[in-house]
C-alpha cells in the first residue's frame, strides 16, 4: 500500500507505467491492492476482471473522479452519472459521432487537418507535435458540437478553455493569481459564453449538431436540459476528446516515422484513392475511409501500443467478492487497460509495433482502448476517423516527419531542429 497518506501515487505517476504495472503483476498476480491519490484501490490486470467491473457487474461500481475535477468540468457532465440521465445524454453524443454524422463531417475534418499541416509546414520554428494536435482535436470538437461557430465565440471558448486546461491539474485553492484560481474564473466565463451561444441558437433553425440535440432533448416527463447542464456536457466532451485524440495522433506520427517501410506501404494504399479522386476532382469519401485496411490496422495497433487511457477508476458501491477476493465498499477499482494490451498471452511480442496482429480479431475483452460497457467511449469512431484523415493528409502533402524526444505523455520536446521539413 506504499507510504502513509501518499501510498504509491508518486511511483504511479513518475515511473514508466509499463514498469509500474508489470512489476506489481509479476509479484502479486492479476489482482492486487495499492493506495493512490489518497484512496485504497484494487488494480485489475485481467480481461475477465475488467469485464466484471465495466460490463457484467457495472451496477456495483460507480464512476468516480476527484471532487475538484468534477467541479472544474461541470458536475452535470455525463461521465459522472449512471442511470437515466446518463443514458439520455449518451444517446445524443453517440448520435453526433454515428457513421451518418461522421460521413457529413469528413470534409470539415479534412479541411482542419490540412490547414494544421500547412501552418506547421510554413512555420520555421520547432512545432510541438502534441500541442499542435491538441489544437487540431479541439477544433474538431468545436465542429462536432457547434457545426459552424461565430469566430468571436470560437476564440473566446479557446482562450478560456486553455486557461481551464492549464489549471485543471493544479492544487485546488482560492488564492488569486494561481493557475487553479484562474481556471475556476475561466470556467465561469465559459458557462456565460455557452449560455449566450445557446440563447442565440434557440432562435435559429435546426442545424443537427450536438448542440441542437442537447437543446431539443426532452426527458420522460418532457423536461429539457438547463443551460448549465448543456454547458457542463459541452465542456465534458471537449475535455474527453482533446488530449486523448491529440496523444493518439502524436503517437501514430511517431510510429510511422519509425518505420519507413510501413510509411511507404500506407502511401501506396492511399495513392490509388488519391489518383482516382484527382481524376474525378472529388475529395475523400466515407466509403474510401472504410476501404483503407492497412491504415485501419495501423490505427488499431497504435491504440494498443500507446494505450492512451492506461486505466480507469470506479468505486465499489457495496462489498463485492470477485474470485475469492473481497473488494470493500468505497474502495477504488482500476481496470488496467495498458497491462491487458501488453500481456504476451494475448499479444505476442507485445512491445513491438506490429499492425499485422490485427489480421485476426483480438480475444474477447483483451482490446479496450476505448473502455467497455455503459461508459465506453462514444467518440471512438470519431477519434479513429481523425487519425485516418491526419495520416491521409500527411502522406498526400508529402511532408517528411522528423521528431525529437517523445515523452510518455505523448508530448514532443523541443530540441532545436525544425520538426517538419
Ligand atoms: C483516441 C482518442 C480517445 C480515447 C483513447 C478515448 C478513450 C476513452 C475511454 C477509455 C473511455 C471510458 C472511460 C471509463 O470507462 O471510465 C472514454 C469515455 C468517453 N469518451 Fe473517449 N476517448 C477518445 C476520444 C474521444 C472523443 C473524440 C470524444 C468525443 C466525442 C470522446 C468522448 C468520450 C465521452 C463523452 C466519454 C464518457 C462516456 C460515458 O461516460 O458514457 N472520447 N473515452
Automatic annotation (TrEMBL):
Q: Does the keyword Iron apply?
A: yes
Query: Which pathway features in its UniProt record?
Result: Plant hormone degradation; abscisic acid degradation
- EC class, as a word, reads oxidoreductase
Q: Name one GO biological process term.
A: sterol metabolic process
What does the record give as EC number? 1.14.14.137
Q: How does it sit in the membrane?
A: Single-pass membrane protein
Q: What is its main location?
A: membrane
Q: Which cofactor does it need?
A: heme
Query: GO cellular component terms?
Result: membrane
Q: Where does heme bind?
A: 377
Q: Where does it localize?
A: Membrane
Provide this UniProt record's keywords sorted from A to Z: Heme, Iron, Membrane, Metal-binding, Monooxygenase, Oxidoreductase, Transmembrane, Transmembrane helix
Which Gene Ontology molecular function entries are recorded, alphabetically? (+)-abscisic acid 8'-hydroxylase activity; heme binding; iron ion binding
Q: Which reaction equations make up its catalytic activity? A: 2-cis-(+)-abscisate + reduced [NADPH--hemoprotein reductase] + O2 = (+)-8'-hydroxyabscisate + oxidized [NADPH--hemoprotein reductase] + H2O + H(+)
Briefly state the protein's biological role.
Answer: Involved in the oxidative degradation of abscisic acid.
Q: Which family does it belong to?
A: Belongs to the cytochrome P450 family.
**Protein's recorded name:** (+)-abscisic acid 8'-hydroxylase
What organism does the record attribute this protein to?
A: Acorus calamus (Sweet flag)
Q: Which gene encodes it?
A: CYP707A4
